[in-house]
Each structure stands twice: as structure tokens, then as C-alpha cells.
Amino acid sequence: MNDFLTIAGKPYASRLLAGTGKYRDFAQTRAALEASGAEIVTVAIRRANIGQHAGEANLLDALPPERFTILPNTAGCFTADEAVRTLRLARELLGGHALVKLEVLGDAASLYPNMPETLKAAGTLVKEGFEVMVYCADDPIQARMLEDLGCAAIMPLASLIGSGMGILNPWNLSLIVERIEVPVIVDAGVGTASDAAIAMELGCDGVLMNTAIAHARDPVRMAGAMRKAVEAGREAYLAGRMPKKTYVADPSSPAAGLIGSCAP
Questions:
Q1: CB of 211 within 8 A of CB of 217?
Q2: Using an 8 Å Cβ cutoff, are 154 and 131 in contact?
Q3: Which residues make beta-bridge pairs with 18?
Q4: Is the separation of the CB atoms in 107 and 53 below 8 Å?
Q5: pLDDT one-digit tens code per residue, 152-173
Q6: How many CB atoms sit inside 10 A of residue 67's CB?
Q7: Is residue 14 within 8 Å of 39, Cβ to Cβ?
Q8: Which residues are catalytic?
Q9: What's the half-sphere exposure (Cβ side, CA atoms, 13 Å) at 17?
Q10: CA Rg, the chain, in Å?
Q11: Do 134 and 168 meet the contact criterion of CB atoms below 8 Å apart?
Q12: Taking the complete model, does pTM exceed 0.85, yes or no?
């Protein structure tokens, strides 16, 4: 089925995006990402080495750009200026790479997005030619504002980063999906496969996760489970679920003509 996720004009077969942090080592990172089927992988420029620290192990040796689309992100940035400087550096390190993930955090405890600073940074980056995928609150109004600025994808949180609490406000996610034309990708809070499936059943275009895989007892096996969940959720969304009925039974098999039946 030619059901591709298209971001900034490029199609991807996988709707699961994965982070590269928190794994035991680069070997486990590569094994988990291969099992996930992810084509887009996020890299925290302020925490991982992709060439800016000479003499240190380079993540790109384990995750070559020829195999994966590297998505540099601004994890750890708390102002628009920090985020913009970080992504300018990433573009230089990756030879002019334009696709980036913007996140500007509000505080170190919750890692909730600072939306005024996020909007400010997004406007600057889009003007500079970046293709911006943006982490944001599950606010449909601010999501529309980010889309209007020219962002390539809107990435609302399901719950707090690293919490594993799953989708706490499906109604807001549904509002964003209904109103936004660019891809909507759930980012943050997924804890297990059912969370990913629900996000896709709501009509989201993809799911990004890191901790849910990296902190599982068996990251590689969990990565495979997440891959199946995203695929199943997407299939269910496209198939269209049956309507919910309150207090109305509808047997799977005809009831008329049953032997010994007293039904009219």
C-alpha cells in the first residue's frame, strides 16, 4: 500500500520516528532502530557527538546518514536564541541539512514547551530556510500558528517527555489533527505499544518516541512492538472503526430463526 508519510516533500515508508538517546551503547541504539523500522532518527545536538567533538565516538558511525534521515533537535535549549544557534551548528555539521526538530523547553523539571519562545524560534528558522518540525503543547490554536509560520510538521506532546503516561488528552490531539494540514506527529509521553496505536487511530500521521524503547527491559523487542503498533493503528484509522453504540446490542450473527428462540 502506497501510504507514505510525506515531510517537507520527501516520502517515508515508516510512520515511526525514533530518538537515539538513553541506550546502553551505539550497538544497542542501532539494533533497536533497525527493529523499529524508523527512517527518521532524532539526535540531540547538545548531548550527542555528530562531529563537533573531535576524538570522541561519533553517533553517525553507528547511524550513517545514507541509511537514516538524521533529524537534529534542540533538546536542552530554553530560549529561542539557544535553539536557533544549535540548529545553525547542526546544519553546518551535516553539510547544509535543512530538516530539523525544534524544541524550546519551559523548565528543567517538566520539560514542557515554552510556546512564546518556540514560536519566536520557528519564525526565525523558517525564514532562514530550515524545514522545521516543531515540538509543542497540545493546543490547537498555537499549532495553527506554527503551521501558519511555515513549519513542516507539528509535534504535540501526548504527555510529559519521558513520563510514559501515554495520551492524556485525546480530544486536543483530535482537534489538532482536524485543523492542521501539515503532518501531525505525536511527540513525548508514549510508554507502550497501545499508546502508539491510539495515537495513530486518532488520525495522527506518525509517532516519535525514545524513552519508551530505550528504557524498556528489552529495547530491541519493544522497538519491534512499537513498529507493529504504529502500523496497526494506521490500518485501523484508514479502515474506519465501527460506531460506538450505547446500550444497543448488535449480534454478530442473525438472531432470527434460531432453534428454540422466543424472540419475536
A1: no
A2: no
A3: 41, 209
A4: no
A5: 999 999 999 989 999 999 999 9
A6: 13
A7: yes
A8: 101
A9: 30
A10: 21
A11: no
A12: yes
